[in-house]
Amino acid sequence: MEIDLTSAIGHLFCHNPTYSDLDIARRITEDYNVEHLTLTARFVKRIRLEQGWLRRHNDPAAIEMQKASTIDTIEQLLAEGRIRQYGRRQLITHLARKHGHRSRRDDVLSALRILDDYGVTSRTPGMKKKRRDNYVVPGPDWLWCLDGHDKLARFGIEIYGCVDAYSRKIIWFYVGSSNRTQVSVLRQYLYTVKAVGYCPNLIRSDKGRETPMMADAHYFFYHTACFNDPTIPDEVFNQISFSDCYIYGKSTGNTKVEGIWYQMISHTTEQWILFFSALEADGWFREDLPSDQVILVFIFMPILQDAISDWVEDHNATPIRPQRHRSLHVPGIPNDLYRGNPDAPKQGFDFDRDLHSELERQVLDYGTSFPFSSIKCGL
User: Are 152 and 106 members of one domain?
Assistant: First the structure.
């Protein structure tokens, strides 16, 4: 496959601000299977310099121009109301990922202090909770953690999501009006495993009323995969149990997905929770009136789906920092960590396509009054 190396390098350089020249070379080699060409960091650097794509500017005029561009871009985004809860790190990622704008840390901080001083003050951390012990899994797709986010449920908007425990990448999320029905969650699961191409080794969720059908489907996929695996002896197969592929536990102990909800509230949904609560306090919304919920969902559901979709993509592209006092902590970018590496290879197992098709056929027509795009895979 022929590729335009200059365009590919430019795209990765502008949209992935933490990538080194070596990272860019490796990513192009992996994505495009460039076997006939040895792409090196030196080659990437030469292309960058030829195109004027510099990591740092020494020219004061260029620095001021970059700062002015950053401030203008952030001012426009704040006026749209899309980044009002974004901190410095996630905003740098958002500017690069969505707008191809490489910004300096100090420029973003300066812009936020000038244009959104209230937001900066509100994000100042208070007393920190005691951190739990290290959470160790062999690699991507070993364990998916699922749970619902109910802070907007009384307004008719429900959210359900899944995060990969190793990479902290959000695998799927759903924004709609029926995350608490068994068929809806089963449909989300089937849609996602079909998009990914295989199932995770384990799923963890709470024992809510929405999970039994999905848990049943996952166990059937696992049982069928083991049955078709010639390397598994009969005596081992006969001892297979539900707990080999599914973990039930309290939501408070499902730390990976609970951490995602905490971040989503602080970065995106808190402003909507406060806004809808203000509507209720002023008498513009009543929870006991179905008509009020229908109107609110009709107006704000598409806006929230778009805003949360943006946040999910930013989260999956934002680097996770190293932590000195946690020896088993895995830093990196969730999108990159999810690709796997020699020390943490991809896990998961193949599922029976015929069984999947039969289950999918049974739930395909469920919820067709709502857009199917409300289920998003973060792949």
Answer: no
Nearest one of 256, 148, 149 to 202, comparing CA atoms: 256
Q: With 60 as the cut, is the pLDDT of residue 154 above it?
A: yes
Q: How many CB atoms lie within 10 A of CB 339?
A: 15
Whole-number mean pLDDT of the chain?
85
Contact 302, 309 (CB under 8 A): no
Domain boundaries, position 325: 143-377
Whether 208 and 226 map to the same domain: the answer is: yes
Confirm whether 132 is domain-assigned. Answer: no
- Verify that 234 and 342 share a domain, yes or no: yes
Residue 248, phi then psi, degrees to nearest 5: -100, 140
Q: How many domains is the chain built from?
A: 3
Query: What CATH number did the domain enclosing 317 receive?
Result: 3.30.420.10
Residue 308 clears pLDDT 60, i.e. is over it: yes
Distances, alpha carbon 20 to alpha carbons 27, 40, 41, 96, 341, in Å: 11, 11, 8, 15, 17
Domain assignment present for residue 130? The answer is no
Residues 267 and 244 in one domain: yes
Q: Which residues pair with 349 in a beta bridge?
A: 199
Kindly report the pTM of this predicted structure: 0.77
The band of 17, judged by pLDDT with boundaries at 50, 70 and 90, is confident
Alpha helices in the chain (DSSP H): 5-15, 21-32, 41-51, 60-80, 88-99, 105-115, 117-122, 182-196, 212-227, 234-237, 255-264, 270-281, 290-317, 334-337, 353-363
Closest CA to 331 of 215, 218, 167: 167
Give the up-direction half-sphere exposure of residue 61: CA atoms within 13 A in the CB hemisphere. Answer: 0
- Is there a domain that residue 211 lies in? yes
Q: Say if residue 284's pLDDT is above 60.
A: yes
- Residues 70 and 196 both lie in one domain: no
Confidence grade of residue 368 (pLDDT, cut at 50, 70, 90):
very low
How big is the CA angle at 222 (ends 379 and 231), to the nearest 5 degrees? 110
